[in-house]
Write a structure and sequence with these properties.
Number of strands: 7
Number of helices: 5
Helix content: 10-25%
Radius of gyration: 17 Å
Shape: globular
Largest sheet: 5 strands, antiparallel
Distance between the termini: 43 Å
Length: 190
C-alpha cells in the first residue's frame, strides 16, 4: 500500500505499511549514510526525504521479520538471486517452535516504542516509489543495506510526518522538521 495521502505534509497523519526500522538507526545521519543503512540505491534520497514515526501500536501477526537491512527484501542471499531465496521469517519459523515464534513476535511487538530512540520510523524518499522498476531489476534499486534492524508491516498503520528533510540536511531529532546542515552537525557536541 502506498502512503496515503500523497504527498505527505509535515505534521499530518498518513497511513502506510512496508519496511520500518528504529529511529536510532537513522537519526543524525546524512542521506547517503541512510541510503547505505536502509538499502536504497545511491542518490535515492537526493531529492530529500520524510521521516514518518509510528503512532499506532503493532500486534503480533501485523508484521514480518525482515532481519537486518543486509537481508534485502527480508531474504537471505543477494537480491539479484531473486525471490527464491529463503525469507528471514521462514528461517526463524524453522528454528523455533510455534509457541517460541509467537513469543518472539509478542516480544518484538511490545518493543515497538512510540517515543524515544527505539520508536519505529519509516524513511520515505520525497520522489516516492518508482512503479516503472521491473521486479527483476528491483535489486539494483534496493541493494543490501549495512545491517540495521527492519521489519515489514503487513497491516497499514498511522504515522505522523515528523520531519521533511531537504536534500543535504541531517535530521537531528527534536520537534517536527528540525534539521541541520551536515557540516554544522559535525561540529556540534565537540
Amino acid at each position: 500500500m502506498p502512503v496515503n495521502p500523497w504527498p505527505p505534509a509535515l505534521g499530518n497523519m498518513v497511513t502506510a505499511d512496508g519496511c520500518i526500522t528504529r529511529l536510532r538507526s537513522v537519526i543524525n545521519q546524512p542521506s547517503d549514510e541512510i541510503e547505505r543503512r536502509i538499502g536504497y540505491s545511491a542518490g535515492r534520497l537526493n531529492g530529500g526525504w520524510w521521516l514518518l514515526l509510528l503512532m499506532d501500536s503493532v500486534q503480533a501477526g501485523e508484521f514480518e521479520f525482515f532481519g537486518y537491512s543486509n537481508s534485502s527484501g527480508g531474504r537471505s542471499g543477494h537480491p539479484r538471486e531473486g525471490d527464491g531465496r529463503e525469507t528471514v521469517e521462514a528461517s526463524l519459523r524453522g528454528r523455533l517452535t510455534p509457541s517460541g515464534f509467537r513469543k518472539k513476535q509478542d516480544e518484538i511487538a511490545a518493543s515497538m516504542a512510540s517515543s524515544g530512540p527505539d520508536r519505529i520510523a519509516k524513511i520515505l524518499p520525497c520522489s516516492g516509489e518508482d512503479p516503472t522498476i521491473p521486479a527483476s531489476e528491483a535489486w539494483r534499486h534496493y541493494p543490501p543495506g549495512s545491517g540495521i534492524p527492519q521489519w515489514r508491516l503487513t497491516v497499514a498503520k498511522q504515522f505522523v510526518v515528523a520531519a521533511d528533510i531537504p536534500d543535504g540536511r541531517v535530521f537531528r531529532g527534536g520537534g517536527a522538521g528540525f534539521w541541520l546542515d551536515p557540516k554544522r552537525a559535525q561540529t556540534m557536541g565537540n
